[in-house]
Write a structure and sequence with these properties.
Recoverin, domain 1; two-stranded antiparallel ribbon; 154 residues; 5% strand; binds calcium ion; mainly alpha; globular; 4 strands; 53% helix
Length: 154
């Protein structure tokens, strides 16, 4: 006898789309060194806080973009000037490619399937926007704290 089909409530599916995927994306957006860790992705708030270059406890949109610009080299592992699937090591592909492809699709202005430095630096800040609850383009301490309390991706 087959086990009964588990019904997943629609709201949970939507929650997954809205929250879980961006959380995966955060790994690629702000924490490239974690993205390819063998023991799986995880949000590390301390990595987001690294974008706080003036150390005032808040992260502005500009700081986030500056941080992206600085991180580009780390994500472009094969050093060809673009972020694409060729930059993901084989062992990490299954875990990281869906999030990477999602990030590319969201930011690929000229639709060539890869992200230039310009596209990456000036593109959408999906996770930043998700955590910026009051939409003032600044992640303050309360918002960062809430981000930290979000469910971890195992
Ligand atoms: Ca590359
Ligand atoms: Ca492109
Ligand atoms: Ca805010």
């Amino acid at each position: 006898m087959k086990p009964p089909i588990r019904l997943v409530p629609i709201f949970f599916k939507e929650l997954k789309m809205k929250i879980i995927k961006p959380i995966f994306a955060i790994i690629l957006l702000v924490a490239p060194t974690i993205a390819f860790a063998q023991n799986g992705p995880k949000i590390d708030i301390n990595r987001i806080k690294k974008a706080d270059t003036n150390h005032d406890g808040k992260i502005t949109e500009q700081e986030m973009r500056t941080y992206r610009n600085a991180n580009f080299k780390q994500l472009d592992r094969n050093n060809d000037g673009f972020i694409d699937s060729n930059d993901v090591p084989q062992f990490a592909a299954a875990r990281n490619l869906p999030a990477l492809n999602q990030m590319i699709t969201a930011n690929d202005i000229n639709h060539d399937g890869k992200l230039s430095r310009d596209e990456y630096t000036k593109g959408r800040l999906v996770v930043f926007d998700l955590f910026d609850a009051n939409k003032d383009k600044v992640l303050d301490q309360a918002e960062l704290k809430r981000a930290q309390e979000m469910p971890q991706v195992k």
